[in-house]
């Protein structure tokens, strides 16, 4: 409306222009003046909204980026509670266990090193807004993707290295220590190794068929020479139920020693 007011003339002014044109003998001369003024006003009025349009088009539009679920590889000493706190899982360890029940098993207190837990994206992650591509720049996106791709194999290799145990006495003791740490069972590498060498010389298939236990039908078995009743009573959930299994045998024996002597480290003879 301001554009039309700018070019509007009062009736007296228009009449003066018309009379002047008649006096000049060219009646038609008044028509172009009026017509040109109207046309210019219309053009200005029509052009006004067009000047605003680019600003509306140029307004940035934010898009919402949903974070993909994260996978966490369990390492020795971790618990569901600890992992839930680390990732700020809504609902705590119960929610984490609910989403990984098939992987963890029936006992949420026991998670084995090496298993991969799915950490659901949090509500904050889902609501995160991505910056417009024009602001960030294509070259920056490519650099970020390149860094993530190059870093992935290194992270995976580190995880695999952290949870790999050799299939020998050293590996069995170290894996047992990891399980013991999850369940709060005390003991050290030196204490376990010392007792194993005395009881079985490091032979996981060792069995004692001559002592009083054997006479009762319950011979001592395995690396730490555990009888079946003791193995079953102190068996650690998540380990094998075979008393000859090296890791299961060590952890059960250490659990028993902790209950009776405070720690396997305190055992220096027949126990």
Protein architecture, described:
The chain is mainly α and 271 residues long. The protein is built from 14 helices and six strands. The strands form three sheets. It has a two-stranded antiparallel sheet with strand order 1-4. Helix 4 crosses helix 5.
Strand content: 5-15%
Could you state the order of secondary-structure elements as H and E?
Answer: HHHEEHHHEHEHHHHEHEHH
Q: Any low-confidence stretches, pLDDT <50, length ≥5? A: 1-66, 123-135
Which strands sit side by side, in order, in the main sheet? 1-4
The count of DSSP E runs of length 2 or more, i.e. the number of strands, is 6
Radius of gyration: 41 Å
* End-to-end CA span: 102 Å
**Helical segment count:** 14
Mean pLDDT: 75
Helix content: 55-70%
Overall shape: elongated
What profile does the largest beta sheet have?
2 strands, antiparallel
Structural class: mainly alpha
């Amino acid at each position: 409306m301001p554009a039309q007011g700018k070019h509007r003339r009062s009736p007296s002014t228009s009449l003066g222009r018309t009379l002047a044109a008649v006096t000049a003998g060219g009646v038609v001369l008044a028509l172009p003046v009026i017509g040109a003024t109207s046309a210019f006003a219309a053009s200005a009025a029509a052009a006004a909204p067009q000047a605003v349009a680019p600003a509306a088009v140029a307004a940035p539009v934010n898009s919402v980026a949903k974070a993909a679920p994260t996978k966490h590889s369990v390492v020795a000493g971790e618990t569901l509670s600890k992992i839930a706190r680390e990732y700020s899982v809504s609902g705590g360890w119960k929610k984490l266990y609910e989403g990984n029940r098939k992987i963890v098993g029936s006992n949420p207190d026991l998670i084995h090193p090496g298993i991969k837990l799915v950490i659901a994206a949090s509500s904050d992650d889902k609501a995160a807004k991505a910056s417009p591509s024009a602001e960030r720049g294509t070259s920056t996106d490519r650099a970020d993707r390149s860094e993530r791709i190059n870093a992935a194999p290194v992270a995976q290799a580190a995880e695999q290295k952290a949870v790999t145990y050799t299939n020998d006495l050293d590996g069995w003791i170290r894996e047992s220590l990891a399980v013991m740490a999850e369940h709060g069972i005390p003991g050290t590498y030196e204490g376990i190794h010392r007792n194993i060498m005395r009881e079985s010389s490091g032979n996981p298939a060792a069995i004692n068929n001559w002592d009083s236990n054997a006479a009762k039908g319950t011979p001592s078995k395995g690396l730490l020479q555990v009888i079946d009743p003791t193995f079953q009573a102190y068996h650690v959930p998540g380990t094998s139920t075979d008393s000859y299994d090296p890791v299961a045998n060590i952890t059960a024996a250490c659990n028993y020693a902790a209950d009776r002597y405070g720690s396997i480290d305190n055992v220096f003879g027949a126990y």
